[in-house]
Amino acid sequence: MRPHLITKLGALGFALGLILAWQVLAEARLISPIFFPAPSRALSVLAARVADGSIFAPLAATVLRMIFGWLLACLAGIALGAAIASSRIARDLLEPTLELMRPLPASAVIPVAILFLGLSNAMSLAVIAFGAIWPVLLASIHGFTAVPPELRHGGLLIMPSTV
Questions:
Q1: 143: DSSP letter
Q2: Are residues 107 and 50 in contact, defined by beta-carbon separation less than 8 angstroms?
Q3: Cα 101 from Cα 126, distance rounded (Å)
Q4: pTM to 2 decimals?
Q5: Residue 41 — left, alpha, or beta (φ > 0 → left; ψ -120 to 50 → alpha)?
Q6: Residue 162 — pLDDT band, cuts 50, 70, 90?
Q7: Is the pLDDT of residue 36 over 70?
């Protein structure tokens, strides 16, 4: 057998073992069924919700929140990235705060978001945007920084002909 196939089979076996242990512990009530329902129970509820169609409205609402949060992150990330890359003052003012906030997981921001925005769609969008902004922001900073100085100020770069 190839080594990567053995690794994949080992990972699959480990995952199945964890699910089986979870099932056994939940059935024996060694773990709380309220916090950790058995995988078989979760799958049966999922199948019932798909069968009666009650899963699709909440699923659509979640997908819309994710899309709008991502769009908000893109707008804010590109704008901040352009400001940071084009201005030394903006870089000096914003980078320390952004570097402090970047390693925070989005779930750590939830209590603060609830405090300021309540349990609302705006809170959901803010948390999603916070989690999604970092790749966009970093890519924007690097992208704007990579633009040649001749092209930054709207100038036209004219290459000499090689003819």
A1: H
A2: no
A3: 14
A4: 0.69
A5: alpha
A6: low
A7: yes
What's the residue count for the chain? 163
| pLDDT tens-place string over residues 46-74 | 999 999 999 999 999 999 999 999 999 99
pLDDT of 79 reads: 93
> Which amino acid is residue 161, in one-letter code?
S
Residue 161 gets which letter from DSSP? P
Two tokens at 17? 């073992």
| Rounded Cα–Cα distance for residues 153 and 163 (Å) | 29
Residue 132 to residues 8, 41, 59, 70, 136, Cα–Cα distance (Å): 30, 32, 19, 6, 7
* Structure tokens, 67: 């899309």
Q: Which segments of 87-160 does DSSP mark as H helices, in order? A: 88-101, 106-117, 121-145, 149-152
The alpha carbon torsion through 141, 146, 151, 154 (nearest 10 deg) reads 0
